[in-house]
Amino acid sequence: MYKSSVVDFYGSQRKIARALGVSDQAVSHWRPIIPEKAALKLERITNGALKYDASLYRKNHVPNPQRNYARCLSAG
């Protein structure tokens, strides 16, 4: 699940934190793909309005190949 989708749904990181029972700081430290346990819980507490996508949590998942390619070019 993408953090941007969750923020769009809830409107703020503070509201996300309250819904999950975690600190605002914990949510602010999330990467673009949120922690798997949080995604599962969000799907449950939103009655499926936010969807858990198991493919995002596979070890070899590359969320944005173009961005990763650009990062490789800038590093080299």
From TrEMBL:
This is Helix-turn-helix domain-containing protein. One of its GO terms (molecular function) is DNA binding. It comes from Xenorhabdus szentirmaii. InterPro entries: Lambda_DNA-bd_dom_sf.
